[in-house]
Amino acid sequence: MSTAIETHDTEVVGSDDVETPELVGLLAEFNDVDSVARAARTVRRAGFTRWDVHSPFPIHGIDYAMGIRPTRLPWIVLGAGLTGLSGGILLQWWTNAFDYPFFISGKPVWSLPANIPVIFELTILLSAFTTGLGMLALNGLPRWSNPLLKSDRFRQVTDDKFFIVIDATDKKFDEAGTTRLLQEAGATAVERVED
Questions:
Q1: Terminal CA-to-CA distance of the chain, rounded, Å?
Q2: 168 and 119 part of one domain
Q3: Is the domain of 83 the same as that of 132?
Q4: What string of H, E and C letters represents the secondary structure of the chain?
Q5: Which CATH number fits the domain that encloses residue 42?
Q6: Residue 69 backbone dihedrals phi, psi, to 5 degrees
Q7: How many C-beta neighbours within 10 Å does residue 151 have?
Q8: What's the Cα-to-Cα distance from 107 to each of 65, 96, 97, 103, 155, rounded to whole Å?
Q9: Which residue among 22, 40, 109, 185 is least enclosed by CB atoms within 10 Å?
Q10: 13 lies in a domain?
């Protein structure tokens, strides 16, 4: 029995074909609340717009230090609630007074008090779904992975460390300049975050 052996020329992959990791941002570590709050004010004054602060617990006043505007979600939920309210009224009026009026003992064909439960339920239903879905949409969720989770240093955020992450897509981002800014702001360590 004879076996045929085929040989194939192997192609050497050049260094141009190897994927280099993409810089996602810079991760700066801070030891306490005061230093991360001061650094947040410094980063905001420097004009950065795509950055975040991570801490093991909520920090009072950090939203103000970061310049975070109030969310639009309450207005979106109000719109959904008013849509549910008007939709419930219109549905009840259409079915009871217009499409299929049902006359009983001189009672009105349509009255508001008799229809409050359905109106209330539609208002709450649309508001609740809009709250959940709007929160997910405005936060950019679901997000299946985050490059920060690959950093061993960042794992301390659930214990006792505080971090500022500046996104590389920010218009003011310059790796050397941003690193220098974070170090001058009191960072104990600055790390590249790559994906």
A1: 52
A2: no
A3: yes
A4: CCCCCCCCCCCCCCHHHCCCCCEEEEEEEECCHHHHHHHHHHHHHCCCCCEEEECCCCCCCHHHHHCCCCCCHHHHHHHHHHHHHHHHHHHHHHHHHHHCCCCCCCCCCCCHHHHHHHHHHHHHHHHHHHHHHHHHHHCCCCCCCCHHHHCCHHHHHHCCCEEEEEECCCCCCCHHHHHHHHHHCCCCEEEEEEC
A5: 3.30.70.260
A6: -80, 155
A7: 19
A8: 61, 12, 12, 7, 68
A9: 22
A10: no
Burial class (CB in 10 A: 0-12, 13-18, 19+), 79: middle
Residue that is written with structure tokens 């609740």 in the block? 128
Largest CA distance in the chain: 102
By residue count, the chain amounts to 195
The parent domain of residue 165 ranges over 22-56+159-194
Number of domains in the chain: 2
Pairing type for strands 162-167 and 23-30 reads: antiparallel
